[in-house]
Write a structure and sequence with these properties.
Layout (H helix, E strand, L loop, with lengths): L5 H12 L2 H4 L5 E7 L7 E5 L5 E4 L3 E5 L4 E8 L4 E9 L2 E6 L3 E6 L4 E10 L2 E9 L4 E5 L5 E5 L2 E7 L1 E7 L11 E5 L4 E7 L3 H13 L6 E6 L2 E9 L5 H9 L25 H12 L20 H10 L17 H11 L22 H9 L18 H17 L1
Parallel strand pairs: 1-9, 10-16
Antiparallel strand pairs: 1-4, 2-3, 2-5, 5-8, 6-7, 6-9, 10-13, 11-12, 11-14, 14-15, 17-18
Helix pairs in contact: 4-9, 5-6, 5-7, 7-8
């Protein structure tokens, strides 16, 4: 078998793309897409039936009017990552392999889509904090990881390697040097900065004042009873959302064994799929189907059984899979598609260009991008984290946005 050098392959590919056979967007085609939560991608080599090699490291690449025959794709993943390759023909999934190589056949008129995803097996946790809190920072890491955020933050499942953080300083404070630390598998690194200047002292005083006083926690009337959430400071970013969602009866705090509210909201606790089903019913003000037995066995004989049965009956997409665990945390993508369904917002075709971790073939990608365009989620962030769980504070924020959407209809 004869192989072309990378340089020759690049020249050959460029020439081919200038011809009608490869430039026209009709007929047989292959789309190759790379996905990685951290943003770093690998390299691949596509071997055609005529023994031509096409090498790329782009996130997405499309070839049009390719010849019929057997193709082989070889992938070199980012360091420390495992590879999964999925081959689609139209809407049909042809094969899934957890190796960096796949072979497939092309016939005239086929539209093949190849999704290459990477999962890091050697990961740890990266923390970024400052005194005073709220400083803006930029972090770069292995591959092409680049994150801009405000302190304090903690990033789970970060690939091992070298990380560097640059803080923005306050007026009158010295400019801090860039910090660099090495993350090893299953370990944690923490970047920390303490500013000493008048501006820093003023910000510390402001933060302290926001957390003192008799009225520092959110109080709301629930079922005719005034409840103070002792874990929801009025200065917190989610305070107003918790107040509105609780006031309208969509969510409440935790109860004791006798059914009395304890005054604990649990903003960091994760929302389960069973809780999501109940919340969805509460937002639009419909009652569950008490008489129906849910198809999902994990929901039977549970307090949320009627909500799951009702969600199944209503055709809410997340709940149509009878095999998933309703006790497990709801994923951010699952929350978004559910909110769009109950609000009856039409889905728009996804483009894969809004978030660095939402691609054309990401589950519920069309819902995520629709939600961003509708103002339900923030489209200014680099990552959406579709497969991450959602906590109660984040859920409260989405609830208030959904209620506002209902009012506008």
């Amino acid at each position: 078998m004869r192989y072309f050098s990378p340089l020759f392959a690049g020249v050959l590919m460029s020439a081919l793309l200038q011809t009608t056979a490869f430039a026209e967007k009709t007929g047989t085609s292959i789309i190759i897409e790379q996905q990685n939560l951290s943003g770093s991608i690998g390299k691949w080599t596509l071997l055609s039936p005529h023994e031509m090699q096409f090498k790329e490291s782009e996130a997405t690449k499309t070839f049009y009017n390719l010849p019929e025959g057997i193709f082989t794709l070889f992938v070199t993943p980012p360091q420390g990552a495992n590879t999964t390759i999925r081959v689609h023909k139209g809407d049909e999934l042809l094969t899934t392999v957890k190796t960096p190589q796949v072979t497939f056949s092309m016939q005239k008129g086929d539209d093949i889509r190849i999704s290459i995803s990477y999962i890091f097996t050697r990961v740890g946790t990266v923390g970024v904090q400052s005194d005073p809190a709220g400083l803006h920072f930029e972090m770069i890491g292995p591959g092409s990881i680049r994150i801009a955020d405000d302190t304090p933050q903690s990033y789970l499942h970060s690939p091992e390697g070298q990380y560097a953080v640059t803080y923005e300083t306050l007026e009158g404070c010295r400019v801090p040097a860039t910090q660099s630390l090495l993350l090893e598998k299953d370990k944690r690194i923490t970047f920390s900065l303490s500013l000493v200047c008048d501006s820093a002292d003023a910000q510390r005083a402001l933060l302290k004042n926001q957390q003192t006083g008799d009225d520092k926690y959110v109080t709301v009337s629930i079922q005719g009873q005034n409840v103070t959430f002792t874990d929801v400071p009025q200065s917190s970013w989610f305070a107003s959302s918790v107040f509105r969602a609780a006031k309208h009866g969509v969510i409440s705090g935790y109860k004791d064994t006798t059914g009395n509210l304890t005054g604990v909201f649990g903003p960091e606790n994760l929302v389960t799929r069973g809780e999501l089903a109940k919340i969805a019913h509460k937002i639009i003000g419909i009652a569950p189907l008490d008489a129906n037995l849910p198809q999902n066995s994990s929901a039977r004989n549970e307090w949320f059984a009627s909500y799951i049965a009702s969600a199944e009956n209503n055709g809410w997409e997340v709940f149509l899979d009878a095999t998933i665990d309703m006790h497990a945390p709801a994923l951010r993508a699952e929350v978004v598609i559910t909110l769009l369904q109950i609000l009856n917002i039409p889905l728009q075709w996804q483009k894969g260009d809004l978030f660095s971790d939402v691609y054309l073939f990401t589950p519920f990608a069309n819902a995520i991008e629709t939600a961003a365009r509708e103002g339900i989620i923030d489209d200014t962030q680099l990552f959406f984290r579709p497969q991450d769980p959602i906590n109660r504070a984040e859920m409260a924020k989405l609830i208030t946005i959904a209620m506002d959407k209902l009012v506008l209809k």
